[in-house]
């Protein structure tokens, strides 16, 4: 069932044709981004009913299937499909082909949505189409966002990751929307000297404050850009997103301190900006190829051998 609706239901429904709405779980709430999970258990015997989007809706189907009727057309949505809806736009969801679905809904503030839409030059409506076919990159981003948002409930330091993944998901959806609907999309231009200067200033800012839970919007503001413009510019200059750069900076600092100090791994993980030990160990191993403990051991042995020579 679609996220964020204001239902307009019939007063009396037959017992055999119930009207079932989704169960909504808040996963993460940041200043400009809210992530929720919507679980619906409706099936073929349950009665569809008219609904209305309270606000602009962007949701990715994580599991199950349903039909989404919007703008005089019915769309079959399965895992990986994207549901889109304008504020106050009417729609109907139905489950005539199966029981239940799970959706991840991403709500952005109006300025962020406007920036995302303008960045892809989609004329007319905010969303040129009410649904998109499944795409692996969008599905992967949605699942990563769901995982980061769930962790954010117990680890506030995951906020930058939630923000980065949310913005990346929105950008991917608008980009795919432009491709599937034939909307004009401005080609990426080669970064100018000014662009490179801003990207370098942002990188230095990220490095100097890497232990802090920096949000992308704060780094973008530091160099005088909107979040979406900054995200594209930074990636064009360095080939990675600001969040990826931040994670690399944290791991590099951790690697240096593992060799230079006797600080316990748990304490070091929190000191460089990771709010969860398991996340630190997993990320360190992925980027370095060794666990933090093994890395410290190997480099300590190497230094001892160098001294003996």
State the gist of this model:
This protein is 45% helix and 18% strand.
Q: How would you explain this protein's 3D organization?
A:
- The chain contains ten helices and ten strands.
- The chain has 309 residues and is α+β, with helices and mostly antiparallel strands.
- Strands 1-2-9-4-7-10 form a six-stranded antiparallel sheet. A four-stranded antiparallel sheet has the order 3-8-5-6, with no helix packed on it.
- A hairpin with a 3-residue loop joins strand 1 and strand 2.
- Helix 4 packs across helix 6, helix 7 packs across helix 9 (277-288) and helix 7 crosses helix 10 (292-308).
- The longest helix is centred in the middle third of the chain and has 23 residues, at 159-181.
- The N and C termini lie far apart (69 Å).
- Residues 5-16 have low confidence and may be disordered.
**Structural class per helix/strand content?**
alpha+beta
Can you tell me the residue ranges where pLDDT is under 50 for at least 5 consecutive residues?
5-16
* Helix count, DSSP H or I runs of 4 or more residues: 10
How far apart are the first and last residues' alpha carbons, in Å? Answer: 69 Å
Question: How many strands appear in the DSSP assignment?
Answer: 10
Strand content is 15-25%
Q: Roughly what is the average pLDDT, rounded to an integer? A: 84
Q: Tell me the strand order in the biggest sheet.
A: 1-2-9-4-7-10
Q: Radius of gyration, rounded?
A: 23 Å
Shape: globular
- Subunit arrangement of the protein: single chain
Order of helices and strands: EEEEEEEEEHEHHHHHHHHH
What fraction, in percent, of the residue positions are helical? 40-55%
